[in-house]
TrEMBL record:
Pfam families: HIT. Gene3D superfamilies: HIT-like. Residues 5-113 form the HIT domain. This is HIT family protein. It comes from the Bacteria. PROSITE patterns: HIT_1, HIT_2. InterPro entries: HINT, Histidine_triad_CS, Histidine_triad_HIT, HIT-like, HIT-like_sf.
Amino acid sequence: MTDCIFCKIINGEIPSYKIYEDDVVYAFLDISQATPGHTLVVPKKHVKDIFEYDEDLAAAVFARIPKIARAVKASNSEIIGMNILNNNGKAAYQSVFHSHIHLLPRYADDKFSMTFINNEEEYDEAKYKAVQDAIRSQFKD
């Protein structure tokens, strides 16, 4: 895709701080550096988001995440954890529409935050079951 900033980075048209590359993925430092070492892992094949992956691409891309994550973690003894994030769609905060996985190293006082809201009180057995049934009915095995 010619207008895609990540495709341009992969093709060397835009400079990046490359961390890792092979025939399937290209990993580079996120320019924002939400925390030091914040890395993006992108498939070389242009897919907009997780919904466009086939099983083979998913297996190939996600198989590389632990190797890259271990290298990021090993690069700095102050890293005490890591968030692995994948945003899909504008509502989920995806801002570049070429699928990418964020590796966000965590430090003792890094000020990065995420909020997970607990809506458990709004659910009863019937509501959980309705959501479960709606999702499970989508599997066509």
